[in-house]
């Protein structure tokens, strides 16, 4: 499995003259400098690695005069918690802070979760609701403020159409303007699927977990498409687990380390900064390189099916442990597609834009990809030659006991990764595929992972080592809740509940959406969400956890002593 480069802050990116990815660095006093990720004029790129430079964000000036400004958070301020002294923003317009600062009187800054061109995401403690939140603070630069207003429009549309939050999209609690920065308050989520893979040495998820992730991701996408929204940047980095909690299985033969598996398969989609209403302006280049559909590369225009292509690539990555198409240039990308999926149909080639026609040639009166003749290097040719077929890739990363599931998944993926976007399955049609026709959820299947402690059945509690002793994860959760109820200020950043702790605390990733490719039209008035009532959420959670623990203890006491029958994932 190929190693990956440490991820760097994202640059604005577009497509270069020869189809390679181009970064635009904003240099103070010198405008923009163009540099291509190619062999000419730049350091060599290790193609088998995945970098931040594959993320495309096009930030445009929003000239729509009717977008109302953000409003103040004055009504949310707690008087006895003063804000820090006023500080000037840094040279890039980022909000300057110290850990422990107050962000208004309501929020206490605990840690920095992420940073991008858009601004920063901070983990904060909400004193009013007694919970951790993720606050995205947009740079004090007009084009990013304008783009943030477009994202707010999308987030408000999602909230208005899914008030119960049943469609697996991130929930924005409220938004406000603070010291000239647009601030968006989100629910606190866990690691992204990409970060979980990375922390797990890129070991693939079990097929049952892939099924659960895929079902939720497709449901979220179907919800977006029903609202005429196209996400345009679906990728593992933008899919977050709801919980940090995980279990660690013992090493199996041929491996020196165990596998980490999430306690819960629940996920939410984040990063709506690039979401576009289908009727609005469509930029030429969308999607992060590895998840970019062929119609985008060929300049044929794009709509809802580009999201389906991205999801297909995501499912392959979750099931295999690594990105399917790891490349930085169009020609190699198309050649990799042909190696995995077969030749590009001639009618697709004929419909390519004039600038994309250079990737093709004629042979015997028929159009075909100019490969390997058009390859940029012999290394590129070797990389394409090593590409396995889709079926071989998935079979090599799964146990023989789930081969039927793998065959079903392969069939689904071939229908999602069709060159012709009109022939791809819709999100609703994907959900009807046989791969998702499983009577039991992953948490109840013998080969699947355990669910979150709050969702465990009474029978599972009987597997505890001692009949009357609470399970360690449950006890840890209760202790954490007790400390929250007792102390108005959170003692520090939230920590994952694990059966074995990480070697180092994780840098959790909130809902970062570094740059934007926003639509032009605004379909709804933008208003900040009302503040939540000052409910005693932590106290209620503690009471619920204690009740559940008591029930589990009673069930364990009445159950006959037996050995645990929970299976270890055969991965």
UniProtKB/TrEMBL annotation:
GO MF terms, alphabetically ordered: ATP binding; protein serine/threonine kinase activity
Low complexity bias: start-end ranges: 454-471
CDD domains found in the cross-reference section: PKc_CLK
Pfam families: Pkinase (PF00069)
Domain of life: Eukaryota
A single Gene Ontology CC term: nucleus
UniProt keywords, alphabetically: ATP-binding, Kinase, Nucleotide-binding, Serine/threonine-protein kinase, Transferase
UniProt-listed SMART domains: S_TKc
The Protein kinase domain, residue ranges: 107-436
Compositionally skewed regions (Basic and acidic residues) per UniProt: 9-29
Record InterPro entries: CLK_kinases, Kinase-like_dom_sf, Prot_kinase_dom, Ser/Thr_kinase_AS
Positions of the UniProt region annotated as Disordered: 1-90, 438-471, 505-534, 551-571
Sequence intervals crossing the membrane: none
PANTHER family named in the record: SERINE/THREONINE-PROTEIN KINASE DOA-RELATED, SERINE_THREONINE-PROTEIN KINASE DOA
Protein name stated in the entry: Protein kinase domain-containing protein
């Amino acid at each position: 499995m190929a190693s990956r480069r440490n991820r760097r802050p994202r640059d604005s990116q577009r497509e270069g003259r020869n189809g390679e990815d181009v970064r635009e660095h904003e240099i103070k006093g010198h405008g923009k400098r163009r540099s291509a990720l190619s062999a000419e004029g730049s350091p060599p790129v290790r193609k088998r690695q995945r970098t931040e430079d594959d993320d495309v964000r096009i930030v445009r000036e929003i000239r729509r005069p009717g977008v109302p400004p953000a409003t103040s958070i004055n009504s949310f301020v707690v008087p006895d918690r003063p804000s820090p002294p006023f500080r000037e923003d840094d040279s890039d317009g980022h909000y300057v802070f110290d850990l422990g600062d107050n962000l208004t009187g309501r929020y206490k800054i605990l840690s920095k979760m992420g940073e991008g061109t858009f601004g920063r995401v901070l983990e904060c403690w909400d004193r009013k609701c007694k919970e951790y939140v993720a606050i995205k603070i947009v740079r004090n630069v007009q084009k990013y403020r304008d783009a943030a207003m477009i994202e707010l429009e999308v987030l408000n549309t999602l909230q208005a159409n899914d008030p119960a939050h049943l469609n697996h999209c991130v929930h924005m609690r409220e938004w406000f303007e603070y010291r000239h920065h647009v601030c968006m308050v989100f629910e606190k989520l866990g690691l992204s699927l990409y970060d979980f893979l990375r922390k797990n040495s890129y070991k693939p998820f079990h097929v049952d977990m892939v099924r659960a992730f895929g079902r939720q991701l497709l449901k979220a996408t179907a919800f977006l498409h029903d609202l005429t929204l196209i996400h345009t940047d679906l990728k593992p980095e933008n899919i977050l687990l709801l919980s940090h909690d995980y279990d660690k299985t013992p090493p199996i033969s041929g491996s020196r380390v165990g596998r980490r598996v999430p306690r819960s398969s629940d996920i939410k989609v984040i990063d709506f900064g690039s979401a576009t209403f289908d009727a609005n302006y469509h930029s030429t280049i969308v999607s992060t390189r590895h998840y970019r559909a062929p119609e985008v590369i060929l300049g044929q225009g794009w709509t809802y099916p580009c999201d389906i292509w991205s999801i297909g690539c995501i499912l392959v990555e979750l099931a295999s442990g690594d990105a399917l198409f790891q490349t930085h240039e169009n020609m190699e990308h198309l050649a990799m597609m042909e190696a995995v999926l077969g030749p590009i149909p001639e009618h697709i080639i004929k419909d390519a834009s004039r600038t994309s026609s250079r990737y093709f040639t004629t042979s015997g009166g028929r159009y075909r990809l100019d490969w390997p003749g058009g390859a940029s290097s012999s290394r590129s040719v070797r990389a394409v030659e090593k590409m396995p077929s889709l079926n071989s890739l998935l079979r090599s990363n799964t146990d023989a006991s789930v081969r039927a599931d793998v065959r079903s998944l392969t069939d689904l993926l071939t229908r999602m990764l069709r060159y012709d976007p009109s022939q791809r399955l819709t999100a609703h049609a994907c959900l009807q595929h046989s791969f998702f026709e499983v009577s039991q959820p992953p948490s109840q299947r013998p080969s699947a992972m355990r669910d979150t402690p709050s969702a465990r059945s009474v029978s599972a509690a009987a597997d505890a080592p001692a009949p009357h002793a609470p399970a360690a994860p449950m006890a840890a959760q209760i202790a954490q809740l007790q400390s929250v109820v007792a102390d108005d200020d959170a003692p520090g950043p939230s920590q994952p509940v694990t059966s074995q702790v990480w070697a180092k605390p994780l840098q959790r990733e909130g809902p970062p959406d570094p740059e934007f490719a926003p639509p032009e039209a605004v379909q709804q008035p933008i208003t900040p969400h009302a503040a939540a009532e000052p409910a005693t959420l932590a106290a209620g959670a503690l009471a619920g956890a204690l009740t559940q623990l008591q029930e589990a203890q009673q069930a364990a006491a009445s159950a006959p002593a037996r050995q645990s029958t929970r299976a270890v994932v055969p991965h």
